[in-house]
Design goal:
The structure is a homodimer. Chain A is mainly α and about 140 residues long. Chain A has two domains: about 60 residues, Winged helix-like DNA-binding domain superfamily/Winged helix DNA-binding domain (Arc Repressor Mutant, subunit A, Orthogonal Bundle), CATH 1.10.10.10; about 60 residues, Iron dependent repressor, metal binding and dimerisation domain (Diphtheria Toxin Repressor, domain 2, Orthogonal Bundle). Helices cover about 70% and strands about 5% of the residues of chain A. The first copy, chain A, is built from seven helices and two strands, in the order H-H-H-E-E-H-H-H-H. Chain A starts with 13 loop residues before the first helix and ends with a helix.
Chain lengths: ~140, ~140
């Protein structure tokens, strides 16, 4: 269920941690340091340090040996990161980028796009979903 | 003419150097270490080291105190970087992202998108250019 992959050579960002923690909690009910370490391919001591940082910033509550829960602020941020991810990913999929590439590219670019741009891409996706004939015409042209 | 801006906190990549050098040579006939330093906001000694690296990799010919010229390989890479930049930038502009934001986002994401995805975005842009009525319908929906 590794929904979060890392861009080659990049260190996971705090946002990646929140995204991973959110998915872990929703998939298996809790997120342990080892789970996060597996998901983000980061060594456990680094995970522990980062989780403490996220706790200090008010994104989560961390109880050693008991696990962690996201605060409202943490959950809100995680959901916004996930929504942004889904919008980009859906756009790439609509224009015919195959799943694996779409996934990698989404992970690559999601942190670099400003909210106003995300909003416009979301509207474009929405338009294409509501206008299947136009989407088909576009896809026929792209795939040609 | 700072066509190349840096993403906050990111070190310019070799591709950024080639892009900057290409533009400098085409705009003023030559590219000096100081020009590149100005454009990329990098200290001159770092520019010198990177330029030497690019020369060692066969992207340019560097003559100290005389400047540099791109090799065929360097020019080809620079043009491909510039073309990728223009495709992303045009797509963002078509969906109504204002110039400054489109510029910043393009600089942020251009290195993280795979060629096949760029190709599909290029075809999408091409389709929208050739079908102004559909573009207008999309823009009306996005801007609403």
């Amino acid at each position: 269920m590794a929904r979060v992959v890392q861009v080659k050579g990049e260190t996971p960002r705090l946002e990646d941690y929140l995204e991973a923690i959110y998915h872990l909690i929703h998939d298996k009910g809790y997120a342990s340091t080892l789970d996060i370490s597996d998901t983000l391919k980061v060594k456990p001591p680094t995970v522990t340090l980062t989780v403490q940082k996220l706790a200090a910033k008010g994104y989560l509550i961390y109880e050693p040996y008991r696990g962690m829960t996201l605060t409202k602020k943490g959950e809100k941020t995680a959901l916004s990161v996930i929504s942004r991810h889904n919008i980009i990913s859906e756009f790439l999929s609509l224009i015919g980028v195959e799943e694996k590439v779409a996934y990698e590219d989404t992970e690559g670019i999601e942190h670099y796009i400003q909210p106003i741009t995300i909003h416009k891409i979301e509207k474009l996706v929405d338009f294409l979903r509501k206008n299947p004939d136009q989407l088909r015409a576009i896809r026929d042209y792209i795939d040609d």
